[in-house]
Design goal:
The structure is a homodimer of 117-residue chains.
Chain A (H helix, E strand, L loop, with lengths): L7 H12 L6 H12 L5 H13 L3 E5 L12 E5 L1 H20 L2 H4 L10
Antiparallel strand pairs in A: 1-2
Helix pairs in contact in A: 1-3, 2-3
Chain A binds a DNA duplex (30 and 30 nucleotides) through helix 1 and helix 3.
Chain lengths: 117, 117
DNA sequence: ACTATTTATTCTACATTTACGAAAAAACCA
DNA sequence: TGGTTTTTTCGTAAATGTAGAATAAATAGT
């Protein structure tokens, strides 16, 4: 599908935006991504996903005015929209549903364990 | 990430392969995808995902010899490998974990309902 | 007010994944 | 053998994912 579909990375960013609420922005998301998944992405990668997510209507943003803290450009704070919430909820349900439909046999004995005998 | 990362579509195909066990192949997967998700993908899209999944080691395949049925090229039957099982299990855990970490407030009042007053 | 420093976003370029439809291949049947 | 059926393979286009350098905005010190 195209245009409205949620990519794998995009979904992660969308989820992380929720987790970080109400302080989700490029840099904090990048940090949290690494903390939670060990996966480190360039800041540019995060931002391009954020832009696409906003274009698709799954996220909205607002500039945070003078924070009274250290220097630096104003943060662009992101939060999930109703459409975004629906998207991740559906994605989650679909995947969990499919997972539950997999017959025992299909995964039987599939593991990385070794048996010494 | 590259090479070993599981794309959104790929994950769906991997799951569907499990659901269809032991009769998962290009055409049956395409059919099941539409049944389960309403999403219809071209057969070519399915196959390219299948090829990638096999290259990544998440799926294995074997040609089904003379089926004694109608004509047609032999089906290439796919099944999940141990690595594939691990991949979808981890993906599922990560997403569910993140979902559970989203504070109530972040999704509060976000829905498509309309209230007549 | 000016400059250096800090923090974050934007921009540019490229790699990988997803999507499609046409063409090719293999098996069966008359 | 020729035609039909079923499914895979191939070539190309579009969307998504990745990266890092360049740019911008705010603060603090002088």
């Amino acid at each position: 599908m195209k245009g409205t579909q949620l990519g794998e990375f995009e979904e992660l960013i969308l989820l992380l935006t929720g987790v970080l609420y109400p302080d989700a922005y490029g840099v904090s998301i990048a940090r949290e991504l690494e903390n939670q998944t060990g996966r480190k992405a360039a800041i540019g990668a995060i931002h391009s996903a954020l832009v696409r997510l906003e274009e698709k209507g799954f996220l909205k943003s607002e500039l945070q005015s003078g924070s009274g803290k250290r220097g630096g450009r104003p943060k662009k704070i992101f939060s999930i929209t109703a459409a975004g919430k629906t998207a991740i909820a559906k994605s989650k349900e679909l995947r969990n549903s499919l997972w539950d439909q997999i017959p025992e046999l299909a995964l039987k004995g599939l593991n990385y364990s070794y048996v010494i005998r």
